[in-house]
Write a structure and sequence with these properties.
Radius of gyration: 55 Å
Largest sheet: 5 strands, antiparallel
Structural class: alpha+beta
Number of helices: 2
Strand order of the largest sheet: 6-5-4-1-7
Helix content: 55-70%
Order of helices and strands: HEEEEEEEH
Length: 203
C-alpha cells in the first residue's frame, strides 16, 4: 500500500527531476558575445529559466542593464545573458537595442571621466610645453641675431670690395693722367728743343 512516507519521497524525486530538467545547459562559448541589447527603462524585470512565466525565476534585471541576446523571440520571451553572467529568459517587449537613460548616464559619466583625465594630463604637460616654447623663442631670437650679423658682415664685405675696386680705378686714372701729362710735357719740351735747334742750324 502506498503510504505517506513513500508519497513524500516520490514528490521530492519528481520536484528534483523537474528542476534539473528546467536548468539550462552550460553552453558558454569560448569567446562570449558582446552586449547587443538593453533592458528598457522600467524598474526591473524577472529572468526565468525558460521562455515562460511558468518557469522558475532566476532573479531580477535592473532597467537599462546592458545584456547579450542569445536567441530569438520564443513565445514572447528572449534568451539573454545579463551583466552578472546569468543566462535566462525575459519578455521580449522589455528588450531594446537602444541604450536607456541609465546606460546613457553611465556613458556620459565615463566620457566625463575620460575628458577630465585628458584635461589633467594636458595640464601636467602644459609647463613642459611652455618651457619648450620659451626655449624655441630664445633659439629663434639667437638665430635672427646670427643672421643679422652675417648679413651685416656680408654687406660690409661688399662695401669694402666696392671701395677697393673704386680705389684701384682711381689709381689707374691718376696714373694714366700723370702719364698723359708727362707725355704732353715731354712733347712740348721736345718741340721747343727741336725748334730752337733748327733755328740755330739756320744761322
Amino acid at each position: 500500500m502506498f503510504n505517506l512516507k513513500q508519497f513524500i519521497i516520490a514528490s521530492l524525486l519528481l520536484t528534483s527531476f523537474t528542476i534539473f530538467a528546467e536548468e539550462p545547459a552550460d553552453t558558454t562559448p569560448a569567446n562570449p558575445p558582446q552586449p547587443n541589447g538593453y533592458i528598457s527603462d522600467n524598474l526591473y524585470i524577472f529572468m526565468h529559466t525558460g521562455p515562460s512565466k511558468n518557469y522558475r525565476i532566476l532573479g531580477s534585471v535592473d532597467a537599462g542593464t546592458a545584456i547579450t541576446i542569445l536567441s530569438g523571440a520564443e513565445d514572447g520571451f528572449v534568451q539573454i545573458k545579463d551583466d552578472k553572467e546569468r543566462e535566462g529568459w525575459v519578455e521580449s517587449k522589455f528588450i531594446t537595442t537602444e541604450a536607456g537613460l541609465k546606460q546613457q548616464l553611465e556613458n556620459l559619466n565615463q566620457t566625463l571621466v575620460d575628458t577630465q583625465t585628458a584635461l589633467n594630463d594636458a595640464q601636467q604637460q602644459l609647463p613642459t610645453l611652455q618651457q619648450n616654447n620659451t626655449n624655441l623663442l630664445a633659439e629663434n631670437v639667437a638665430l635672427q641675431e646670427t643672421i643679422s650679423g652675417l648679413e651685416q658682415q656680408l654687406q660690409d664685405e661688399r662695401l669694402s670690395q666696392q671701395q677697393k675696386v673704386q680705389k684701384e680705378q682711381h689709381q689707374l686714372l691718376t696714373y694714366g693722367g700723370i702719364i698723359g701729362i708727362s707725355g704732353i710735357i715731354i712733347g712740348v719740351i721736345l718741340t721747343l728743343f727741336l725748334s730752337r735747334r733748327k733755328r740755330y742750324d739756320g744761322w
